[in-house]
Write a structure and sequence with these properties.
CATH superfamily of the largest domain: Glycoside hydrolase/deacetylase
Number of domains: 2
Radius of gyration: 34 Å
CATH topology of the largest domain: TIM Barrel
Distance between the termini: 133 Å
Strand content: 5-15%
Number of helices: 12
Order of helices and strands: EEEHHEHEEEHEHHEHEHEEHEHEHH
Helix content: 25-40%
CATH architecture of the largest domain: Alpha-Beta Barrel
Number of strands: 14
CATH class of the largest domain: Alpha Beta
Shape: elongated
Structural class: alpha/beta
Length: 409
Amino acid sequence: MPYSCGTLIDLHGNCFLKYRIGAIWVEPWGRLMRFAAAACALAIVVCVAVFGAVLAQRATAPVVAPAASLSTSASPAARPSVIAAAPTTKQPTASTVVASVPASEPADASAVAPATALAAALAATQASAPATGVQTSASAAPTAALAAPINCPGNDNALGVSRVVEIDTTGGPGFGFEHFKQYDFLQPGEVVLTFDDGPWPHNTPAVLAALAANCTKAIFFPIGEHTMWAPEILKQVDAAGHTIGSHTWSHKDLSKLSFEDSKVEIEKGISAVAWGLGHPPAPFFRFPALRHPPEDVTYLGQRNIAIFSTDMDSFDFKIHKPEQVIASVMSKLKKNGKGIVLMHDFQRATSEAAPELLKQLKLNGYRVVFMKPKEPVQTIASYDEMLMKEVKLPTVTNRPTQDVVHTIQ
């Protein structure tokens, strides 16, 4: 179609070009694009204004709080189900494994003198190594709700037990993020105290005295042979209300044994602890050196025995000073904020550190969670018979000392 071009003057006296196509005058593309850009900018401004008005309305609207839950169990955070050596059985959910139960009234605390010399040594350790020192200021306490006052006779500042959880060990669940990632049931500031390798003269009773003075509880993983040597001490652990699992017969590294020899270590250890207690222990097990052969993990799962690793290892077996044990535990807790703590009631430094360590946990706002099993483990008869060969005089009574010996004068 023929077209022509001419010069036009608008109302403001501006001169611009137009093209005529037939009887219609058309503006050049450049001017049309400028008009389109202006229209888009105007549309964006309108959208921003409308969106801002909606946000302002939501910000001023009242928020209805959710109804409080009637359950006292922890709400586990979503975490990947990763296990170092996965059992062959299907892993249940955290809510079916860990259940909160009411905490029982704490037993009377035995009097324990304050470890003033240890506190001074700890202060010196903190001053020389501030990076790993123990924080005792209020600002260093975990940001969690304060626990209810602890009714602990003789100790107004006792650590106590803030929460008791019952563990369903069906399928052999694993605990401790160093190796097992599935069950994250601890809240910020919560700790589980665990002790390995007992029972041992002097050291285990000293740990028990510190725990009793603070009306708090722990899990003990005794060695079978040690139990045979000192069953009376293990009975003291049981009488104090602590949870008692097992830690093999002789503390061998199971990753270096055949599967059959590993089973003997596991089952003979369980039978020994049951013999020492006079009843079956908890279905809780910890591997020596935290080495988990996959076939042994599967076997424990089939036996419905829970496996305990740790969230933080105190490495107290490498430390010979109690103030260093305290600094090790507290610095790792400060970094992690919560977790299962691995210690050894077999170690003298740990037994000497225990009173001050529990005091530091309280001062820094940490709270103890006590883990109990839903059901005890059942021993296997063939391994019970194997154990009896270790008993020199099996016909001798296994009654507690206090039932046999009485001071009359």
